[in-house]
Design a protein that fits this description.
By secondary structure, the chain is mostly helical. It has six helices and four strands, in the order αααβββααβα. The chain has one domain. It has a two-stranded antiparallel sheet with strand order 1-4.
Length: 178
């Protein structure tokens, strides 16, 4: 049941951020706070959200600066990062799935790479089709680039979670600790 609640929570955040963008960031953040309140391992979960959220912000900032993403509204966060706050919130929402609804991929890094290489680009294309982002290059180029990035990014996120759990958590998503 917890997995379903986590997955539904992420889907709510995804749809709110894509459809309403900065208008509903506060609701997305409240959902993330609620998530943290329901988790027994607050420390590890918080560090996971911060680490993956930061990495995702860097990746999408680099893609934006490289002209891959173009945002219709000028909502870069205070001139500090070139991506809108709603996209950063979406990254934190994604991070909240890694130890929960997506944990089944945690020990299957090849499958995580395949899933990331397909699911990552599909998510961005859906966001583009719904008007949240524009692509600065042709669709095939953007999809190929995102597939390569996400095929690496998702497995690496699970490797990072493993390291963070080793340091901050008594509850592990990885069963075969080496």
């Amino acid at each position: 049941m917890k997995v379903v609640v986590n997955l539904v929570g992420f889907q709510i955040i995804w749809w709110l951020m894509i459809l309403y963008q900065d208008q509903y960031v506060s609701i997305g953040l409240l959902l993330l706070i609620g998530h943290l309140m329901l988790i027994k391992e607050h420390r590890c979960e918080s560090v996971t959200l911060l680490a993956v959220g930061f990495i995702g912000t860097l990746v999408d900032s680099a893609l934006t600066l490289g002209g891959v993403f173009e945002f219709t509204q000028n909502s870069a966060v205070g001139g500090i990062v070139p991506i809108p706050l709603w996209l950063i919130t979406l990254w934190f929402g994604f991070a909240a799935t890694l130890r929960h609804s997506m944990s089944y991929l945690s020990e299957r890094l090849l499958l995580a790479g395949i899933f990331g290489g397909i699911g990552g680009p599909l998510s961005y294309v859906a966001g583009e089709r719904l008007g949240a982002v524009n692509f600065g290059f042709s669709l095939p180029v953007v999809v190929a680039l995102l597939a390569a990035i996400w095929a690496l990014l998702l497995p690496l996120a699970f490797v990072l979670v493993r390291r963070l759990e080793g340091r901050f958590s008594s509850v592990k998503i990885f069963h075969n600790e080496a």
